[in-house]
Amino acid sequence: MTQQILISTAAIFGLLAVIFGAFGAHALKKILSPEQLKSFEVGVRYQMYHAIVLLVLGFNSKQTSPAIYWCFTIGILLFSFSIYGLVMSDALEKKLRILGPITPIGGLLLAIGWGLLLLNVI
């Protein structure tokens, strides 16, 4: 995985996390219940954590395997974005239940990414 791809992906996810976080704190605060807002914030937080990890990996790209990159990237998309979809669809009273099983798959990919990172260092 090239340094440019890693850092670009990190920047996109970081940018979106800031935008979604601000959107949640201001616009959605009036629409979402406290529980829904808390779930939305979990998605934003995990997205930002992993954007930062991708950024750090970008500065060490020679030691980063493509598998780590893909686990984190797909994990963010499945975990955080399914949470956004679940929260928003619930708020609109049209809950997309199909997204429910996607969230833990994303979380599993994030965990696998961390495990691969550990193995890569060892």
From TrEMBL:
Q: Which domain of life is it from?
A: Bacteria
> Its family?
Belongs to the UPF0382 family.
Look up and give the membrane topology term. Multi-pass membrane protein
Q: Which organism is it from?
A: Algibacter mikhailovii
The answer to whether the entry has keyword Transmembrane is yes
* Transmembrane regions: 6-28, 40-61, 67-87, 99-119
Quote the InterPro entries the UniProt record gives: DUF423
Provide this UniProt record's keywords sorted from A to Z.
Membrane, Transmembrane, Transmembrane helix
The protein's name is Membrane protein
Q: What is its main location?
A: membrane
Q: Where in the cell is it found?
A: Membrane
Q: Which GO terms describe its cellular component?
A: plasma membrane
